[in-house]
Automatic annotation (TrEMBL):
NCBIfam families xrefs: himA, PRK00285.1
GO cellular component term of the entry, any: cytosol
Organism: Bauldia litoralis
Subunit-level organization: Heterodimer of an alpha and a beta chain.
Main function: This protein is one of the two subunits of integration host factor, a specific DNA-binding protein that functions in genetic recombination as well as in transcriptional and translational control.
Alphabetical list of Pfam families matching this protein: Bac_DNA_binding
Family annotation (PROSITE patterns): HISTONE_LIKE
DNA-binding keyword on record: yes
Family affiliation: Belongs to the bacterial histone-like protein family.
Protein name, UniProt field: Integration host factor subunit alpha
Length: 110
């Protein structure tokens, strides 16, 4: 896969170019959005972004794992984990890009 990683600076620059705010205001806006998403996730709330996806916090109970080298059983403590579930819109865009931009034909119009 490879490719470029999008950073906060890239997001700030995109807001600057597309929205027309100053660079400082763009950076503040990106920070406020990221902070709100982070704070909501820390509180255990789901964050749903329409046409993008959902960030969901799941609780995992204590379980027994194995050390892959020795095979020794090791207890894994309970914890919360964050998962991302992409929306169907995002999945379709990803797959369309993979197929060279070929749009899916709506059902019944084949």
């Amino acid at each position: 896969m490879g490719g470029k990683t999008v950073t906060r600076a890239d997001l700030c620059e995109a807001v600057y170019r597309k929205v027309g705010l100053s660079r400082t205001e763009s950076a503040q806006l990106v920070e406020v959005v990221i902070d709100e998403i982070r704070d909501s996730i820390v509180r255990g709330e789901a964050v749903k972004l329409s046409s993008f996806g959902s960030f969901i916090v799941r609780s995992k109970s204590e379980r027994v794992g194995r050390n892959p080298k020795t095979g020794e059983e090791v207890p894994i403590s309970p914890r919360r984990v964050m998962v991302f579930k992409p929306s169907n819109v995002l999945k379709d865009k990803i797959n369309d890009a993979l197929l060279g931009g070929k749009a899916k034909t709506p059902p019944g119009e084949e």
